[in-house]
């Protein structure tokens, strides 16, 4: 009975550590990750102020973008803007990737046009998947040269990546600023809150199922 309880506790601990939709690992996000507001454009719950953010160096001849997703499948858009509040004018910095399987995924050599050397920008990673669109942002200084891939830049062995098309994601590019349209849809009115609550309960259910399975497995191991 004791080991059954231990198994259940372990399963619960495991379930609570895999709640997040996705986390940006590199370059570091502007503000700490918030699961509840990750669905809010353009950055997952806040409006950046580029002139006052602590920007990290990003090498235009190749630098890494690394994420950790808990979802079974994710389509990724990597985009950038020099607009100080990230309100629009987004350009794509890499092909749209479909990640299959949850876990770490890293593109080690994202390149940026040399015209941006010496400029500050918002790099934004948008995930399209079972929970709709999710957003994270980094503030970067573009510098010459090639970066050394950080240690977080790994692909989980069970994860696969390939190029794909995703009209929902490409709609977030350009001066049309579809992202700013949705973010200006008054955050106080919480049209997004319903979505993220639903997402939360889906993930809660997933966690419950996972716990249930692990309890059963734990019980079977005892017999
Ligand atoms: C929009 O981005 C382009 C480059 O991608 C830049 O040249 C232009 O100045 C930007 N426009 C605004 C209004 O920021
Ligand atoms: C970056 O490198 C280019 C040549 O590749 C050079 O022309 C430019 O001056 C360099 N810029 C800086 C800020 O070092
Ligand atoms: C991860 O997989 C993608 C797609 O196969 C590949 O382009 C990329 O280089 C891999 N990343 C690492 C760190 O090996
Ligand atoms: Cu999620």
UniProtKB/TrEMBL annotation:
Regions annotated as coiled coil: none
First and last residue of the signal peptide: 1-20
Pfam family, one: BIM1-like_dom
Subcellular location: Cell membrane
Region spans: Disordered: 177-196
Low complexity bias (residue ranges): 177-194
Name used for this protein in its record: Uu.00g061910.m01.CDS01
Protein origin, superkingdom: Eukaryota
GO cellular component: plasma membrane; side of membrane
Alphabetized UniProt keyword annotations: Cell membrane, Glycoprotein, GPI-anchor, Lipoprotein, Membrane, Signal
Membrane topology: Lipid-anchor; GPI-anchor
Keyword field contains Glycoprotein: yes
Domain Copper acquisition factor BIM1-like as annotated: residue spans: 19-157
Organism annotation: Anthostomella pinea
């Amino acid at each position: 009975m004791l080991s059954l309880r231990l198994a259940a506790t372990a399963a619960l601990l495991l379930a609570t550590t895999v709640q997040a939709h996705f986390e940006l690992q590199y370059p570091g996000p502007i503000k700490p990750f918030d699961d509840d507001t990750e669905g809010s454009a353009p950055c997952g719950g806040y409006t950046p102020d580029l002139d006052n953010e602590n920007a990290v160096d990003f090498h235009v001849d190749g630098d890494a973008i690394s994420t950790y997703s808990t979802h079974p499948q994710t389509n990724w858009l990597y985009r950038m803007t020099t607009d100080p509040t990230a309100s629009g004018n987004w350009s794509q910095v890499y092909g749209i990737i479909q990640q299959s399987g949850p876990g770490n995924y890293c593109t080690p050599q994202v390149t940026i046009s040399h015209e941006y050397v010496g400029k500050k920008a918002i790099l934004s990673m948008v995930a399209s998947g079972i929970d709709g669109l999710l957003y994270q942002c980094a503030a970067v200084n573009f510098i010459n040269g090639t970066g050394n891939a950080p240690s977080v830049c790994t692909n989980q062995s069970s994860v696969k990546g390939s190029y794909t098309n995703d009209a929902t994601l490409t709609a977030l590019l350009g001066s049309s600023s579809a992202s700013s349209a949705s973010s200006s849809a008054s955050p106080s009115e919480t049209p997004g809150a319903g979505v993220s609550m639903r997402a939360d309960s889906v993930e809660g259910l997933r966690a419950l199922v996972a716990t249930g399975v692990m309890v059963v497995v734990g019980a079977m191991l005892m017999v």
